[in-house]
Amino acid sequence: MKRILILCVAIILFFSSCAKTREAKKTIFAMDTVMELTVYGNDGEAALTAGEAEIFRLDDLLDRGSEDSDIYKLNNDIDVDRVSPETIKLVRRALEVGASTDWAFDITIAPVVDIWGFYDQSYRVPSDDEITTALTKVGGDRVNVDEAVDLGETKIDLGGVAKGYASQRVSELFRNMGVDSALLNLGGNVQVIGTRPDGDPWRIAVQSPDGDGYAGVLSLSDAAAVTSGDYQRHFESGGVDYHHIIDPETGYPADSGLRSVTVVCEDATLADGLSTALFVMGLDAASDYWRENGGFEAVFITSVGEIYVTSGLKDKFESEYAYTVLENSITKQ
Fold it and tell me: Of 120, 217, 224, 287, which residue is 20 to 30 A from 203 by alpha carbon distance?
């Protein structure tokens, strides 16, 4: 995979260490982004070594550009019988998320992402005909996962859940090693274990889509927070700005009236996939999805700068700006 530093992360982190608690920190580059792992406790260095190895293992497993990866094998119908059960399980999980969102999140969007140049950074605006042709190869509902994985004419990209899954796996690894205070920042995909060393919740700031300061701060413990925003990866052509979150229905960057969505829940894989899906859906449909399905909370920032926070976060979110709390049945103004 071509290693490209993503300079704009979705979430900026605020935390302070306790002077009496040993801090161990490691910065690595994997999955096309900079990642920071911070662990508190006496065995922090051992945990970091194990966490780094796990991230690189998953990067090798899920990188669709590497001929040795499971995703490359599936996409090219090569040695499919040697694809690991772990990868098959993650593909099925991603498809479940996709189906539940009526395919607003779709791992078969790879052909469309490629013609826009978002995969290899060779940005260009494709023609309508190119997009129409690429869309004929998109459709998660056509992937057969009854026994193995049969992609047919589609190709998959697990980039929409890979970092979330990696942070989930590393956090599980850390907990099994006895870590009870840690913070993982995988290119803006944040996972926190326990509380800060001083016992307070971790403070995670949600970046303003305009890049000027923060829209607000979340106070969290034992949770994942994942943001999808139109400012994270984009390019300009002909005076028009095009972002990387593609609507699987149209083949164009999603024009949903949202600029960013931050999803908070215990399941980092789910948070990763849902942050994309809810962005594509737009505020009204995303709010309805939250009410009907539950299991997560969210912060929405619209194209006109309005902030909406689901009710489960109203005591965990603070901002200098006015915001609206979305209730389970009605919107509280």
Answer: 287
- C-alpha angle 119/124/130, rounded to 5°? 90
169 secondary structure, DSSP code: H
CB 233 within 8 A of CB 243: yes
Q: What pLDDT is recorded for position 234?
A: 85
Cα three-residue angle 305-101-204, rounded to 5 degrees: 45
Q: Nearest 5°: phi and psi at 8?
A: -100, 110
Alpha carbon of 144 to those of 103, 147, 148, 156: distances in Å?
15, 8, 8, 12
Mean pLDDT value across residues 229-247: 90
R_g over Cα of the chain:
19
- The neighbouring-strand residues paired with 202 are 220
Q: At what angle do helices 283-293 and 268-281 cross, to 10 degrees?
A: 140
Please count the other Cβ atoms lying within 10 Å of the Cβ belonging to residue 11: 21
Tell me how far apart the alpha carbons of residues 309 and 325 are, in angstroms, rounded to a whole number: 5
CA dist., res. 202 & res. 219, Å (int): 6
For residue 128, the one-letter residue type is D
Task: Specify whether the CB–CB gap between 171 and 184 falls below 8 A.
Answer: yes
CB 131 within 8 A of CB 249: no
- How far apart are the C-alpha atoms of 146 and 240, rounded to whole Å? 43
Q: Is 243 helix (H, G, I), strand (E, B) or coil?
A: strand
313 close to 263: Cβ distance less than 8 angstroms = no
pLDDT in tens, 89-122: 999 999 999 999 999 999 999 999 999 999 888 9
Query: Per-residue confidence at 2, pLDDT binned at 50, 70, 90?
Result: very low
CA atoms within 13 A on the CB side of 166: 34
Q: What is the separation of C-alpha 300 from the centre of its chain, rounded to a whole number of angstroms?
A: 15
Q: What is the length of the chain?
A: 333
CB 145 within 8 A of CB 108: no
Reported in sequence order, the residue ranges of 77-233 that DSSP labels E, i.e. its strands, are 181-186, 189-194, 202-207, 214-220, 223-229
Question: CA 119 to CA 157: how far, in whole Å?
Answer: 10
Q: Is 240 helix (H, G, I), strand (E, B) or coil?
A: strand
